[in-house]
Amino acid sequence: MTENEKIFWDRVLELAQSQLKQATFDFFVSDAKLIKIEGNVATILLDDMKKLFWEKNLQPVILTAGFEVFNTEISINYVFEDIPIHDNREAAATNTDTSIENLPIVQNDLNPKYSFENFVIGDENRWAFTASVSVADLPGTTYNPLFIYGGPGLGKTHLLNAIGNAVVANNPNARVKYISAENFINEFVVHIRLQKMDELKQKFRKLDILLIDDIQSLAKKSLAATQEEFFNTFNALHENNKQIVLTSDRTPDDLNDLEQRLVTRFNWGLTVNITPPDFETRVAILNNKIQEYNYKFRTETIEYLAGQFDSNVRDLEGALKDINLVANFKNLDVITVEVAAEAIRARKQDSSPKMIVIPIEEIQKQVGKFYGVTVKEIKSTKRTQNIVLARQVGMYLAREMTDNSLPKIGKEFGGRDHSTVLHAYNKIKNILSQDDSLRIEVDTIKNKIK
Ligand code: ADP
Ligand code: MG
Question: Region Domain IV, binds dsDNA: what ranges (predicted)?
Fold first, then answer.
């Protein structure tokens, strides 16, 4: 992409984000791609069912961005993702060659970071792990469906993606799809609205492996029509010996408000449970995850951490992230128990319900202190770089950490308009998703405020 194309596209996304609800933006806009701009025509790659939405809602955004960046009217040529080629998200993200041939077309939506290799096995997950590996080795022939259930943060999503990644590694042509039940529901609703159900049917029924996460979301009376469609998809795949793997926070029989015939089918294959890791497994998981760090943990530090978080792996990972932040900041070589205890203090408090109300003034004070500007400057109209950053981060945090309304936040930041607050919030949020250094800054400030 040329420099100007990038500026144009960033602006399109920014304007769209400010005008749409977050969920709408995520669904319709976030995975669209600008391919090129030639002769005032922007070529945009989309899922074809999203075209109507773009035509109806985003024309003005494109016009605005076009005039801002190129000072001319930009028109649009939509191209679609319809050829089944498989690729993963990481490849999509790092692909800088934007010719159509080289773009990933149908996304399997696997997260490349989850593999069997980096899954630590303990007694609590051994069965689920083994079953997942056999399913990945011989999809559609061993356990079909495979149903994995267990509490939050115990590795269900990890295993689901690991299955998909292993299958794609063995056979790059395999048609694999990872989708949360929530997104399946979204897709269903959109296809109904656009009267394109046939496309949805085709899309799912030509799969070799369907990996569907958190199926409990589908267990609601109001979702009878979606359940019906899922039932048909399930049958079509199962009849053709295509593999289905499901995860859930409870057993099939406990999925109240799921049609009985679906429950019956979920019980056709193998149901495996994951329970919380015991102390030994927690130590093994921690040891596995700290390998990438370039500082050492004392053995007693690992044991201390394994003792602090005993119900879920996500918390253990979160604790390591806290420590990582501190270690990088203070340039530490060795993590002692004291350092660890200090680093995870906020997280430990976090896990108990908190009733503390944070005053906006406190946020302004801490942000100001961090960026070396005064609260008065934050509230002023000055536009020095540091002051603007402090102001925008402050507004972001005020929205993130307090229950104050946008107008109230605007008022506290020197009588600004609510749209200014929203703009600042979106802008910082956007940068945070791409820029680690700002994220570390913001986390540091947050820790000071809490
Ligand atoms: P769930 O889907 O069950 O809520 P996840 O699969 O999202 O849980 O796991 C939460 C985090 O913990 C992920 O980052 C995952 O990689 C990690 N994790 C969970 N179990 C293990 C394990 N046995 N070995 C390594 N990492 C794990
Ligand atoms: Mg999950």
Answer: 328-450
